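pinging the channel bc i need a second pair of eyes. not urgent but kinda urgent?? the chain im working w is below, pasted from the shared doc
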Amino acid sequence: MSKNRVVLAYSGGLDTSVAIGWIGEHTGAEVIAVSVDVGQGGEDLQAIRQKALDCGAVESYVADARDEFAEEYCIPALKANGMYQGTYPLVSALSRPLIVKHLVRAARQFGADTMAHGCTGKGNDQVRFEVSLTSMAPDLKAVSPIRDFALSRDVSIEYAEKHALPIETTKHNPFSIDQNLWGRAIETGFLEDLWNAPTKDIYNYTDDPAFPPIPDEIIITFDKGVPVAIDGVTMTPRGIIEELNRRGGAQGIGRIDMVEDRLVGIKSREIYEAPGATILIAAHQAMEQVTLERDQARFKRSVEQRWSELVYEGHWFSPLRHSLDAFIEDTQAYVSGDIRMQLHGGRAVVNGRKSETGLYDFGLATYDSADTYNQGAARGFIEIFGLQAKLAAARNVKFGKGIEVGESTL
């Protein structure tokens, strides 16, 4: 009789390497390790594939999804100016649905009936993995060895040493780190004390902004909301993100220290590094300021907030996100042009804008002799615009409820 099979989201680290054998021993299932490269760096995919097999996986599925992640996840997030609580650019949240997509693909390929991940019961990622799975493949089950089988770090180290697994078990890293093209997330350890300032050693994507190199001026070209070139050189979305990570990171741009509201109800102190995302969102917002109509821009801000909440909470595949995407995509029709920025000392400052599709009219905006604005029209506009306030004020006076100004009542 054939054994049940489990697809495991495999990073190559201690916990997921131990989980391969642990799942087999506790469930009797065979494990297919699934590794997805979303730009996290570290070992190459073939090294990770071999490590998974050496740790007992019966199959190892690997996928280079860096371009897919940039084009199908990071770019939609950019168009939405996606930032949870107005601060966090959804670094980890964006990668989870893509990883689940490949987990489901591997499950179908290798005949698995269960997905496994390495998340704890405290975090957001368990929700993102399992809600994404439910949305894509509701017939598959989900398990988490750390959450469901009490697979703590101490137990993992003991298991790895006992079975001589080919992984590092002695190095103690107090932090939990997740990284990809869009940024890097750091939590736990001494950061859990909110009074402790981050130390320099926790950063990897960014250099110290207190000691920056000379200012770096950059021009980002957009076409319908998508960045297509840097300094006139056409690049892919992935290439642009990588280039801005490099140049922005050298200037210490994109460091974030926040206490965020997790989906499970816990407040959590999080440190992020997202130089490329920080620069691109600032540039995209500046391009929208030039090209979006006023009411469209106002409404889009509320859509951006809801979009970010949905993605943060694991609802990437929800009908509402797809509907919001349709609105967001429509707003990008004229978001084209160049944004000039200065990168220096932890800041990305917009100092130039140029667009053939913008709504900025120099003749209407200028105060010099080239002014084409009919100032005489303002008097009638103000009278009509303020008519409701005028009528309300008259009623207040009639019934003795005038506005107090000093000792008198108007």
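so The CA atoms of residues 7 and 108 lie 10 Å apart. and The chain has 14 helices and 16 strands. — does that match what u expected or am i reading it wrong
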